[in-house]
Amino acid sequence: MTNPEEILQNRRHRKLVWLVGILIFILECAAGYYYNVYVGYYHTDGISRVANAFYVLYSRDPHLGAIGFVWNPLPSMVDLLFLLLYPWIPAMATKGIAGLLMCAIFASLTAAFVTKAFLRRGLPGWVAVVFPLLFSLNPMIFIFGFNGMSDAPFMFFLIVSIVTFLNWLDGKRLGDLALSSFALALSFWCRYEAVPLGGGLILAGLIGVMLVQRTHHPPHESRLKYLWSKAEGVLSILATPLFYSIFLWLLLNAIIMGNPFNFLNGNYTNLAQIEGHLEDGSIYGSLVGNPLLALLYAFKKVAVFSVPFMSILILKVLNHRLFQWDTLILILLFISIPMLQVVMLLKGSTLAWLRYFIYVLPVTLAWLPYELSKIKRQWHIAIPFLALVLNFGILSYAVTQPSIAPDENTFLQNSFGRHSAVYEEWRNKEEIARYLDKYYSQNVILTDSFSAYYIILQSKYPKRFFITSDYDFAKAISHPTDYGVEYFLIPKPGSPSILSAINDAYPNLYEHGAEWAELVKDFGLDWRLYKITNSTRGGF
User: Fold this and answer.
1) What is the CB neighbour count within 10 angstroms for residue 281?
2) 406-465, pLDDT tens digit by residue?
3) Is residue 151 a contact partner of residue 355, using CB atoms and an 8 Å limit?
4) How far apart are CA 39 and CA 417, in angstroms?
5) CA-to-CA distance for 186 and 183, rounded, in angstroms?
6) Are 435 and 445 in contact (CB under 8 A)?
7) Domain ranges of the chain
8) In sequence order, what DSSP letters do the residues of 474-529 get, joined into one string?
9) Is the pTM of the predicted complex or chain greater than 0.85?
10) Residue 190 per-residue DSSP state
11) CA angle 402, 408, 410 (to 5 degrees)
């Protein structure tokens, strides 16, 4: 029978897990409501993920493929569930509440899961509460809990995969290994960084079987042969879901987009957007093809998040564990994702924002329950505690500096009555949506949703827009009258982050017009509305 004290302890542990999770969820929702509803500021990537989900349900051609084949679809799939409420709660789309709730849920799950991981390892209750809170309330991490982006779900699955892997490393339970493998696969459906993480975890599994776990081999079989056969089984469990996910994504891109690598080299990928940032003299241009400079650049970024990692190495030294094989596993997991950024810097396919290197922090947090369960003296807990506090201070400073954390700093720029240029862009697009609703609610307007997504979300008549995900979009650009298109809505060309298939087809249309198109509205806000005239057919 279960000991009554053990029952009470389990109840207390469950309460702690729930309290931490609920607290983070409430705080994330409050912050998200402040920015999304009260301020009206959104992260571009976050609100556009909501738009991708929105097209699945409320575009002219509603279909699941409208979710897009550049970004990994799981965050938008979760957004989709909340967008079912759009007819009754329009703010789910117009204010990006769907993305806010998606992120808040995963942020709270992360905090709750880590709390449980500390408790499962027999660590004190205050550690199980304070350590996850120092992570979740860290300003850079906290922002990801409400901004609608993919980082919150990715961090959750990353932490689950590492914690359960380490549980398997100690306990040899295949259930933990299977859970780790599925969490890793789900992380791929959030972000592509799951691929290098998976590579690190697969190598970690090999090291775990061959060098860490102590097993007795059958007397009739050599130790090396036995360990290798066991490694094959472990790797098949660990790697199969991830490999299947990658294959399925390639297959879907091939079938639907006609290019299995559309997510890498398509018209709307990151590579297409950053070409303008790689001109001669730019910091990114100087890193292309220069391994030493790329490594140094990545090292500086990683160093911002590395204090907790250093605390683990100190713990290993104090407990005479530095030269054990699990240290190699820790290092492999820690460097796996940053090395992807190094490769992409060399190829000129990333801008390497600070947030792309933040994943070393959840890797470190996921390792802490495992490491703290092996310390010899209780005061050693103070070392990672102080490291997390120091890291909290470092990142609090970083978000105040646009030169260090430009993405995250924009939230501060739009706090307490202050507004940035990006904020004004959102307001301008809302004005465009209101104007189109007032005067062109029944007209078919063709626009590239890559640039016009926020206008579409703000409109009361989203189905009148002929957009990128519609089946005949490419044909409608060439022959608009054949597809009932009456107007083109186009952005001002020039910015590398503003892509428009219409501008690509007609590069002079925005500035000079055309004999088949009549300018009916210059919004004075880098957008123009052209009416397709009767002479259209002669112009194509």
Assistant:
1) 6
2) 888 888 888 888 888 888 889 999 999 999 999 999 999 999 999 999 999 999 999 999
3) yes
4) 8
5) 5
6) no
7) 1-148, 150-266, 280-402, 421-539
8) HHHHHSGGGGT--EEEEEPTT-TT---HHHHH-TTHHHH-BTTEEEEEE-SSSEEE
9) yes
10) T
11) 65
